[in-house]
Fold:
Amino acid sequence: MLQRLPAHPEGLNMPDSKRQGGFTYLLLLVALSALALSLLKSQEDVQMRHTEQQEAELLFRGDQYRAAIAAYRAAGNGCFPVRVEQLLIDKRGPTPRYHLRQVWVDPLTNDKTWGVIYDSQGRWVGVRSLGSGKPRRKAGFSHDAETFSKASSYYDWAFKVDTDPKAPLPAACGR
Structure:
């Protein structure tokens, strides 16, 4: 024969472990919340590391352009380059020179287009990133540390050589 169960839950003789099922559910919710918070924190850390890597890459690539412009100028008659191709292969002497290994991509924009810096006479003296944002890095710069540390945007990070008013103008350099 079938036995009838009492209509009221208190009438059931349930073991203590069964009545604590809600407590286990609450602990599970707390654990999942803690896991979600830790994942959010780790996402912030990942984003910060990514930004730091982009800044380090920008400093490296910008310095490559600065050094290439200085090397181009030192290797010839004092002329500044006019085009990036002249930094890739300099045919002014009996043997070609390679001042820049490759056309570097701006790590902030993922584009080969950089902001070009000219002096007052139209000589190409440097590059800058066209990326937006405010730099996190404030120390540890190899060149122009004071200007870089006070920069309010990446556009203010100018990778340029010293200007020389006595240098030949681009038209006089034959290119």
In short: The CA atoms of residues 10 and 80 lie 92 Å apart. Residues 21-75 form the longest helix (55 residues). The chain has four helices and three strands.
